[in-house]
Fold this sequence. Notes:
Layout: H1 2-20, E1 29-35, H2 38-47, E2 54-61, E3 66-73, H3 75-87, E4 91-96, H4 99-113, H5 126-139, E5 144-151, E6 157-163, E7 174-178, H6 186-201, H7 207-215, E8 217-221, H8 226-234, H9 287-301, E9 306-311
Parallel strand pairs: 7-8, 7-9
Antiparallel strand pairs: 1-3, 1-4, 2-3, 5-6, 6-8
Amino acid sequence: MTKYFLLAFVFLYFISLSYESQVTFGDNKILRFISSDKDDFIRFVKDIDNFELDIWVVSQDVEKGHFFSDIRVSSNQLSKLGKISNMYNIQNITKIENLQENIDRFNKLQDVAKESEDFFDAYRNYNETNAFLFALEEKYPELVSIIEIGESYEGRMVYGISISNDPGAINRQTIVYLGNQHAREWISCMTVSYLAQQFCENYEKDPVVKQLLQTYQYVLIPISNPDGYEYSINTNRMWRKNRRENENSNCYGVDINRNWDYEYNTGGSSSSPCSDTYRGVKAFSEPETANVALWANREIGKGNQIIGYIDFHCYGQ
């Protein structure tokens, strides 16, 4: 009896740890800050840059004639942010009153949808997405080959899928579709996966698709940030970066979208490891970006000129 009691206690203990590890956002709301004065708006955005806020968008509504920024704000940030917005006559409206309530509603729908056999009825995790890619290769061997791009910081393989009428061809112009650089942007992974499926299913049905796959090699990488993606699914829905342990900091992760060599550290990124836009210690410091670059150079060495590259993102999460 004592043995079973101890086993039950250990089981419940670890279950409780898993619940405790879930990050919640009950005091978070999404506010839209609005100004019709461009100069005031720019000053406002620059002033809040040091707050390490989760800024979902900075944009302009041409029709309404104003500039706006949507920001996730916790209760302890409201007062300070309100003072700065008042300084520049920036108005705000509430877009989402309680972020956690929205997440909870979504999770209930996701739990039901995951039971569906249709891959695209729900958001799928790293293992499920990889299984989907391998299934495409098995079903369409004349069109598809799996590519190992390289391992992530935590050791997960980043897989891509090459689609053309001659998989693994050389001297073929190549177009790359990349998803999920930002961990929480789940729909970018599903979008790239859907494009892969559509190319395969419509090769014999649609003459335009057939011509494209006879002319180009398409390389699709649904999950370029697998560590961050899994962490976003299991622990912190708003997680954006990879999962690097940053030296001399308690803050994790690098924004791999800011870690590329092209125009590295030329604006729009942060030097703070605690920022969602932290660029890392140097360009290509992260395996998730460095491995894609190495793969691209190998393709170029085979004569496969990369003529197109689309990196899929989405609003907020």
